[in-house]
Amino acid sequence: MKVSKICVLGSGWMGRQIAQHAAQCGYEVTFIGQRRDPKIIQEGLDFIRGNLQKFYLDKGKMAPEEMEAVLGRIKCCTDLGEAVKGVQVVIENVLEDLELKQRVFKELDELCAPETILASDSSGLMITGIGNLSKRQDKVVGMHFFNPVALMNLIEIVRGVKTSDETIETIKELSTSFGKDTIVINDSPGYVVSRLFMVLVNEAAKLVYEDVCSPEDVDKGCHLGLGHAMGPLMACDIGNGIAHGPLALAYMREHLGDEYRACPLITKLHLAGEYGVSIGKGFFKHPAKTANS
After folding, report:
1. Shortest CA distance to 16 belongs to which of 145, 205, 103?
2. Domain contains 287
3. Domain boundary among 155, 186, 217
4. Which domain holds residue 256?
5. What is the pTM assigned to this prediction?
6. pLDDT tens, 113-156?
């Protein structure tokens, strides 16, 4: 199936970036928020405009008319039926809540054309569970992007129990057109990257919690000893991982075993709302964000 029009559902951090990236790659994009709130959707579009201005126009990587052409390919919607009209792929980015995603996919199933593929940007919830209320489970697939979308070159494509080969091939081709490389994996809690990353973060947090060493030395060890570009604790702070980490670990613990129990330090930071760079404090202290940051 040739893809020319995409609906991005979810106007949060990842949804905004995916909508921008798809439009930059030449796709027509309908952009709608989880709550269908016009104010929140407009905030998402303003974010995209600011990103294009700061990282492309101001750096001479894009002419003003190119920027306007990208923005012109993004249509904001508050009605889901309108948003999915004529699209070949929906990329869902709502909160990491299984019941919420199931309700969203059921609604999409009822509103979308029969051939439309329903893709989830979940970072670890099993795709088969997300789509189990849909009548088109052969067209339900995981399409896991990484933050920041413009710079991270991987998309995890997750095959549900009933996902068809045709759906996988379409999403592979779409991912390639986005300039991304892919891995195709069978459905499993945490997929590949999130499962490995959260285990590494959890063990790193245990080393700090047990007073074996400081957060700085944990990250230095991974950077210099393992060749990682960035240590796991700093990566967690930058990626807002403390906000989602305990939930992700609890989900994997439920399905995979008690070895995924969250370190008390991660739970403590989560309860304190110390989510990392976005707040100014996580495993590390960070400069306070300004309005223009």
Report:
1. 145
2. no
3. 186
4. 193-271
5. 0.94
6. 999 999 999 999 999 999 999 999 999 999 999 989 999 999 99
